Amino acid sequence: MTIPTRELGAGGLTAGAVGLGCMSFSGAYGGFEGVDPTDVIGRALDLGVTMLDTADAYGPGISEQVIGEAIKGRRDEVVIATKFGIVGPPRPGHAGEVDGTPAYVRTAIDASLQRLGVDHVDLYYQHRADPDVPIEETVGAMAELVAAGKVLHLGLSEAATGTIRRAAAVHPIAALQSEWSLWSRDIEDEVVPTCRELGIGLVSFSPLGRGFLTGRITTYDELPERDMRRVHPRFQAEAFEANLASVDTVREIADAHGVAPGQVALAWVLAQGPDVIPIPGTKRVAYLEENAGATAVELSADDLGRLDAVTAVGHRAVDPGWIYRETPLPSA
């Protein structure tokens, strides 16, 4: 099986219709001890899962290093997407530390290229908007990387609509990455229409609700001790129990189609438009193959209507202030 491809933006960036989120190859979800990332990534490329999504903050640096080792000899088959800008993690009452200064942009790319062992990345995202730096300055520096051949396409992550418009006025933006799933629909009101108006593709992270929508997580205690989901609002006591109920609809539709619940959840994301690429993360070959198989699942109008009614209890972000931040206007 080789999955179909999709195009993001108007600049010719093409990748498999389902990508691979590589945050799993860091400590975020309990680490990956006992897993060979080269096997997982190699199988992904064999299946046509060509977009490998990472960031310098994952590890930090570990995920990029892992990808670099895994793609040796296969660079031409890979669409490498990485991010810069997060220099300190979010914590209660604080949205985290970011750096969108031109100086940081220039140093961050060189460090990422070294860890990845490549001379360019295909898609370079600003991981989060810097509320202290005009987006024009940040994207201006990113555009310099395109001119230098270090980056082929530019992207933004979790950006507000005003920031998206101002960024696109400086340089074409190929993709906007944001959380989008049956559980996380908030980008549909303003962000998605803005991106489509501007010809910007959409990359959906956490399309499986951080694994919840696969139906495999049934108790909080199943989460590894170091797993970041242990502090996530949707995995807390009452929210957890309420959210288990939302998985029942997904499971019922999956049973009717003879597929896995996660495949139904991904098929719903894929059905939102040909300009959408979900990037579910996994560190298991079996789940990777399952995710790729979602491209063959055809949902009916009735299925889509039932899935549209699925809701989640709890905010989608640990710290809501971490997303949709606008940046200041440039100095006159």
Q: What is the ordering of alpha helices and beta strands? A: EEEHEHEEEHEHEHEHEHHEHH
Total helices: the number is 10
Mean pLDDT equals 91
Class by alpha and beta content: alpha/beta
Evaluate the radius of gyration: 19 Å
Global shape:
globular
Q: Using DSSP, what is the number of strands?
A: 12
* Largest sheet composition: 8 strands, parallel
For the record, give the distance between the C-alpha atoms at the N and C termini, rounded to a whole number.
55 Å
Q: Strands of the biggest beta sheet: in what spatial order?
A: 3-4-5-8-9-10-11-12
> Per DSSP, what share of the residues sits in E-state strands of 2 or more residues?
15-25%
**In percent, how helical is the residue content?**
25-40%
Runs in which pLDDT lies below 50 for 5 or more consecutive residues are: none
Describe the structure using short key phrases.
332 residues, alpha/beta, 15% strand, 8-stranded parallel beta sheet
Architecture blueprint of SSEs:
Elements (H helix, E strand, L loop, with lengths): L4 E4 L4 E4 L3 E2 L15 H11 L3 E3 L8 H9 L8 E6 L1 E3 L8 E2 L3 H15 L4 E6 L8 H13 L3 E7 L3 H10 L4 E5 L11 H8 L2 E5 L31 H21 L3 H10 L5 E3 L6 H8 L8 H8 L24
Parallel strand pairs: 3-4, 4-5, 5-8, 8-9, 9-10, 10-11, 11-12
Antiparallel strand pairs: 1-2, 6-7
Helix pairs in contact: 1-2, 1-9, 3-4, 4-5, 5-6, 7-8
Structure in words:
By secondary structure, the protein is of the alpha/beta class. It contains ten helices and twelve strands. It has helices at 37-47, 62-70, 102-116, 135-147, 161-170, 191-198, 237-257, 261-270, 285-292, 301-308; strands spanning 5-8, 13-16, 20-21, 51-53, 79-84, 86-88, 97-98, 121-126, 151-157, 175-179, 201-205, 276-278. It has an eight-stranded parallel sheet. It has a two-stranded antiparallel ribbon with strand order 1-2. A hairpin with an 8-residue loop joins strand 6 and strand 7 (97-98). The longest helix is centred in the C-terminal third of the chain and has 21 residues, at 237-257.
